[in-house]
Amino acid sequence: MKELIEKYGIVCQLKIHGDCSKIEKFEIDHIIPLSSNELNKKLRGMTRFSIEKVERQSFGSNNMKNMTLVCRRCNAFKKHKFFDKELYERLLKF
User: Which of 35, 43, 50, 66 is surrounded by the fewest CB atoms within 10 Å?
Assistant: First the structure.
């Protein structure tokens, strides 16, 4: 969690619940839910077009690139849902 606090500060990155951050308890959340993991499945099935390998388990996984800091209410509200494209672009730009 220390790495995420250094990266984001103690601020909820989702901001999707009406009472976001009113309870000052923060958690680590998967940006792309573990339950989805569709992107990894698609990447593994693609024909390689270069010698570079796609970083294994980078999305829909426990990789640090897929983690963000969120308040407890937003995390409970999100569950395993996907939200709008702009939210994911903002979270993944770091």
Answer: 50
